From TrEMBL:
Signal peptide: none annotated. Residues 86-108 are annotated as: Disordered. It comes from Peribacillus muralis. Residues 97-107 have a biased composition (Polar residues). This is Transposase. The lineage of its organism: Bacteria, Bacillati, Bacillota, Bacilli, Bacillales. It holds the Pfam family HTH_Tnp_2.
Amino acid sequence: MSKNIYTEFQIKELEKNPNIISASERSISYSPEFKKKSVKEYKKGKAPSQIFMDQGINLEIVGKKQPIRCLQRWRSTFERFGEEGFLTERRGKGSTGRPTSKPQSVEEQLRKAEARIKFLEAENDFLKKLEELERQALKKK
């Protein structure tokens, strides 16, 4: 997403281009075919700005640095996932999240349960002692 904020007129101009799927105030969605073609042309040595201009995209609207940013992102996607990376929605799929736990043996489950019981018993003993100390402090006052 660029820092540009596009006007209604600019959005309509951008959407006239067949390489642009949609445009909003803050973003432009390019077609997967355009992305593939752009990456291939870039690898042949063409400049990002030239690629965009050749496809009829107005750099005055999108910004002079936007082609560079887009090509960096698209090249990364292309290197990781190939052409298929442009055709599938991947947002949110890269997150590893919390790792899933492996199935544990019965002995391992028992050992963990016993350790938890010991911890909770120690915690209860501590709280009992703390309550007793608080009661004694109140009696002295």
